[in-house]
Specification:
about 240 residues; alpha/beta; 2 domains; binds calcium ion
Length: about 240
């Protein structure tokens, strides 16, 4: 059973979400402020966190940043305002999705299902696709090593700082070496929800990866296949 953490200072809303999630068969823990949320998320392992941005004590974005450093957990942000900056900062900080309040509970439940499915599918894909990643969860390309368990990427031993999405994108490309992946496929796998018509987001993430890996180490890891998508070729 998936275990979710809700960090939300509106206690009535938190209880309502908890009831609905319980009804769907999820186990739920609640925190009503940022510090308590961070403490719980650091000390326990959750499958998914629902994290309000406007929180007393420590705001949601700060909680997210601190968590991503030590204990990355898929997180859906709850934002009261239609604040584009919060969303962008949140996604950059590693959130897998966000939902603007007020929301229909069905929408939240749908996003929870998608987030768990995406996260679960990546976790269960690891090591199962023959020859893709070994039992240790290690994916490689030349001197690049992606460690799924440690959530860490190095090139010739140098640690490469990647955001959650950059990591997922690289992981998915490495798992599917020699298979050209379309922008739609990457968008679905990496962003996890429907960004209709926004496949150029994938180009942005590819550019970030190229800056951090190709440019930094003078290699050409991610190939563009014109009109189709992207591929990492085995040597
Ligand atoms: Ca709040």
């Amino acid at each position: 059973m998936a275990h979710l953490l809700i960090v939300e200072d509106e206690e009535k809303l938190a209880r309502f979400i908890e009831l609905e999630l319980n009804h769907e068969g999820y186990e739920v823990t609640k925190a009503f402020d940022g510090r308590e949320g961070l403490r719980l998320a650091t000390e326990n392992k959750y499958d998914l966190i629902l994290l309000d941005i406007m929180l007393p004590g420590l705001n949601g974005l700060e909680v997210l940043r601190r968590l991503q450093q030590d204990n990355p957990t898929p997180t859906i942000l709850l934002t009261a305002r239609d604040a584009v900056m919060d969303k962008v900062s949140g996604l950059d900080a590693g959130a897998v999705d966000y939902i603007t309040k007020p929301f229909a509970i069905e929408e939240l439940l749908a996003r929870v299902r998608v987030a768990l499915k995406i996260h679960g599918s990546i976790a269960s894909t690891s090591g199962k696709e023959t020859g893709a990643s070994d039992e240790e969860g290690i994916l490689t390309w030349r001197d690049l090593v992606l460690n799924e368990k440690k959530h860490e990427v190095t090139y010739q031993g140098h640690l490469i700082e990647l955001t959650n999405r950059e990591f997922m994108m690289l992981q998915y490309l490495l798992l599917n070496k020699d298979i050209v992946l379309s922008r739609d496929t990457l968008l679905e796998k990496v962003c996890g929800y429907d960004y209709i018509g926004e496949t150029n987001m994938i180009d942005v993430y590819i550019r970030y990866l190229r800056t951090k890996i190709d440019d930094a180490f003078d290699v050409k890891m991610i190939q563009t296949v014109r009109g189709v998508g992207y591929v990492i070729k085995s040597e």
